[in-house]
Predict the structure.
Amino acid sequence: MYSNKDRFTGKNITVIGAGSWGTTLSVLLAEKGHNVKLWVRSRPTYLEIKNSRKNEKYTGNLYIPGNVIPFMAEEEEFGHNSEIMIFAVPSHALRGMVRRFYHVLEKLDCLKCILNVAKGFEEKTNLLLSQLLEETLPVNLKDSICVLSGPNIAAEIACKLPGVSVIASKNRQLREYLQPVVSTGSFRIYTNEDITGVQIGGSVKNIIAIAAGISDGLGYGVNTKASLITRGLYELSKFGEKMGANPLTFSGAAGMGDLIATCISPHSRNRNIGERISRGEKVKDILEKMYMVAEGVKTSRSVYEIAKKMDIEVPITECVYKIIYKNMSPKESVSRLMERKFKSEI
């Protein structure tokens, strides 16, 4: 059982991944008085954070406090007193990162929880990322898994614009332990026991955001985008329920909230990809020019494959998947969606 003193004192936290979200979270946590070690993949980024306290490629002029300590080695600078480890790497890199740090994780006696903040499914296995962690973590850490999801555009969070997010875990004590650790005056954390639903909301919304971007690129209006978001929420909820999620989760920040933000934000990488696709750019070319990951591209394949296997109707996902992987034209996808068989709304 965690005491109030345990919850509200400064923590020793390790963040794996210095992209936009990992760096932003590190700054928020450090500003609260936590001691943060930030694992950085590239030496130029390591030196930039160490010497100039910035990570311009991912977070622009955001100042990184001195109690964020960048490191590159697995063990020498890692320390053995971390209470919380945050994985902030893309879904396709998560398994490799767990393997890389496995021998360190086994030795961290103080480690209380693993918090994953990436969104998506693992490619090929189609596992939720919490399932991947259950499969790959040392035995003593399999019950310590938590996830963070919500309408969290990193650039806005970094600017301290008010926003909320959701921490989900099967373990109530862990949820309540992390809630005050991560919450700030501008970043409010809610908790949810539905770890499946919170992850599905954060993953499938990226597919709908690609569709919303396609709509923007084709010059369609507010009615079209509102229709996509609404039907996208229905599709997301139906898929989630079949996967064992609580349908109420999709009415909250990790469902509807994240979906709306990702479909309308000019900072949304997935919405941006959809817009560029509709203007004739090839997905391969778009991805090669991006240094940040847009999870919706790979997620569309995972959700499409799961839906086929489980006989779940996901028309928007199917169109996005076929546009990306089967060369369907965006305008043809619109015709397919609009000419589907008539039915009741719910």
Remarks:
- DSSP finds 16 helices and eight strands in the chain.
- The longest helix spans residues 195-217.
- The CA atoms of residues 315 and 340 lie 9 Å apart.
